[in-house]
Design brief:
disordered C terminus, binds iron/sulfur cluster, 8-stranded parallel beta sheet, 10 strands, two-stranded antiparallel ribbon, TIM Barrel, 15 helices
């Protein structure tokens, strides 16, 4: 029975990260994004299939025109919802999204403004910090998602201190390879084990074990992509076996339950999950995360326990003494209209403006780090 749906609502993105090929290869356009009647039918069928967790993803999910309506419906239907965003558009939707997202993750690649902007090919560091400030003001459970690459590995400690200062739980995501890009070196993955159990830091030891053992092996696969996860594309197709190595696309046409449950194509892909030639060495976490519990049950239980503990700690901390970050964005180049389509992400008006303090010294590149 699948427990997770990775629902790709758009393949458009307002950034161009070096470790991602989505905006380059998929010809995303609003006309290829789901209508609400399609979303409604799919959410209904996902519930029937037993799916509990709805990860609304992309592309940049906040570019999807029905994002608020979709998440409102998902919460009414009692899904556990998660959204990872680069934050550029978050201030625009923040108030409407309160209470609709159980895990809201902001992607930040470096504490160095220029380095973050170089990796994302967009001047966006100050916008990410504004987004964090808005979410903090609205008392949202706050996460920073940090992709650990071979270059950023040496700066993980800085990122931990930065996240603590922001009042966020830090997710360390080892970079995986899927389009010829370089994944995190297994030796470095081993080095991340020391962060397991550190307060306000989440790292999946099962994921690290998978990377250090060479990833998925077709002769004895860890991956259960099809059994554990339903993948829906922006053009309303069921993708198999996974997004990153899509092999088959079945039009859903209001029939997700029947297709997933009874079609021969899905049954064949279930048989072959993790056994395709392209599955050898795979470490794509988006599908592995639900598969890993079968191979590494101890690590997965410990990770879940640590995650729960950190959430509770964050809630208590926010209730007693909300974080007052000492690191504030320098924004010498902040301007209106930084997002596509001319819509301002709230850089100069709305809730963000009230929460962002005056720029720091313009020539300071790496933000000073305070020890929490
Ligand atoms: S923000 Fe996300 S979808 Fe966009 S380029 Fe970066 S990693 Fe890819
Ligand atoms: S092993 Fe990787 S490529 Fe193969 S189905 Fe799983 S996630 Fe996809």
């Amino acid at each position: 029975m699948p427990s997770l749906c990775n629902y790709y609502v758009t393949l458009r993105c307002n950034q161009r990260c070096t470790f991602c090929n989505i905006p380059h290869t998929n010809n995303g356009s609003p006309s290829r994004e789901p209508r609400m009647d399609q979303v409604r039918a799919n959410l209904r069928d996902l519930r029937r299939l037993g799916v509990l967790i709805l990860d609304v993803t992309g592309g940049e999910p906040l570019l999807y025109r029905h994002i608020v309506e979709m998440l409102t419906l998902a919460k009414k239907m009692r899904f556990i919802t998660s959204v990872t965003t680069n934050g550029m558009l978050y201030p625009k939707y923040a108030e409407q999204l309160v209470g609709k997202i159980d895990a809201l993750l902001f992607s930040i690649d470096s504490t160095d403004r220029e380095e973050h902007d170089r990796i994302r090919a967009t001047k966006s560091f100050h916008l990410a910090l504004e987004a964090l400030a808005v979410a903090r003001k609205l008392r949202q459970p706050l996460y920073i998602s940090h992709v650990v690459t071979n270059e950023s590995y040496d700066h993980v400690d800085e990122m931990i201190r930065f996240a603590k200062d922001q009042g966020a739980i830090l997710y360390l995501n080892p970079c995986f390879s899927f389009f010829g890009n370089e994944g995190l070196d297994p030796e470095k993955a081993k080095g991340l084990v020391k962060y397991f159990g550190v307060p306000s830091v989440i790292v999946d030891r099962a994921q690290l074990a998978l990377i250090t053992s060479g990833g998925n092996h077709t002769a004895d696969p860890v991956c259960r992509a099809v059994s554990s996860t339903v993948v829906i594309s922006p053009e309303n197709q069921l993708w198999l076996p996974c997004y990153h190595f899509k092999h088959e696309a079945i039009p859903i046409e209001n029939n997700l339950y029947e297709i997933y449950k009874h079609s021969d194509v899905v049954a064949q892909h279930r048989e072959k999950e993790g056994r395709h030639p392209f599955c050898e060495g795979c470490t794509v976490y988006c599908y592995m995360r639900n598969s890993l519990a079968w191979r590494y049950p101890g690590e997965s239980v410990l990770m879940f326990g640590h995650y729960l503990r950190e959430r509770v700690r964050q809630r208590i901390r926010n209730a007693i003494a909300p974080p007052q970050p000492t690191l504030l964005p320098s924004a010498p180049d902040r301007r209106r209209g930084a997002s596509p389509g001319g819509s301002s992400p709230g850089a100069s008006s709305g809730p963000a403006a009230a929460t962002v303090a005056a720029p720091q010294a313009a020539d300071r590149k790496r933000l000073p780090i305070v020890t929490a």
